[in-house]
Amino acid sequence: MKAILGYKRGMTQIFTERGEVIPVTVLEAGPCPVVQVKTPEKDGYKAYQLAYGAVRPKRVAKPQLGHFKKAGLEPYRHLREIRVLEGEIDLKPGDQVTVADFQVGELVDVTALSKGRGYQGTVKRHGFSRGPESHGSMNVRRPGSIGQSSYPSRVFKGTRMSGHMGNKRITVKNQKLVLVDPDKNLIAVKGQVPGPVGGLVILKQAKNPKAKGGA
Which CATH class, in words, describes the domain spanning 32-97? Predict the structure, then answer.
């Protein structure tokens, strides 16, 4: 299971040799050092930890600082664990994962936090219709009834209401890699990627690449 961490840098477009326009999201990814490798014998499962974004030691808590020091690494801002379900882990602490490990045309799963929209009402958050705007109407953007007094005498769990919108972990599967530039640590993914510009993005080898038959 190949994976790499990076930052979203924005969207642009790439022209193919046939003149086709491909919208892409550019990511600045890696190099990501391997901090720890977990094994079934010691930890009960297979995984490895990747770090990204160098940071000053004073910005890192002492337990994390010791964790990086144990691997012989300087502290990093982000630390993520990548589970491995099949095969062996060919990495060891101190190894570097770069965009050169990926190839153009490969399918990847992209994970990131969506943009936070704050507290929103039902019209924006769930696409509810507005009420009548005629004279005397007091239900233009209100959600309407959320239950009855006789039954169920409570609000059903999961009822769509106003609340915090966005800032959720989203995975977009089977995105095609259009460009890989190891010299500049850049990688371009076809289509859009969740999250704001500058947000952390996790790129993983597609778990089920045949689901869409390509991107």
Answer: alpha beta
Q: Is the dihedral of CA 36, 96, 31, 8 positive or negative?
A: negative
CA distances, 36 to each of 3, 64, 67, 90 (Å) = 14, 12, 9, 12
Tokens of 59: 């910005």
The band of 181, judged by pLDDT with boundaries at 50, 70 and 90, is very high
Contact 194, 110 (CB under 8 A): yes
CA atoms of 36 and 69, how far apart (whole Å): 11
Please tell me the pTM assigned to this model: 0.85
Around Cβ 7, how many Cβ atoms within 10 Å?
18
Q: Which CATH number, 3.40.50.2000, 3.90.226.10, 2.40.30.10, 3.40.30.10, labels domain 8-26+106-115+167-215?
A: 2.40.30.10
Residue pLDDT, tens place only, 51-109: 999 999 999 999 999 999 999 999 999 999 999 987 777 889 999 999 999 999 999 99
Tell me which amino acid residue 204 is: K
Q: Where in the chain is the domain with CATH 3.30.160.810?
A: 32-97
The 3-state DSSP class for residue 189 equals strand
The one-letter amino acid at 52: Y
CA dist., res. 135 & res. 133, Å (int): 7
Q: Kindly tell me if the per-residue pLDDT of 156 is higher than 70.
A: yes
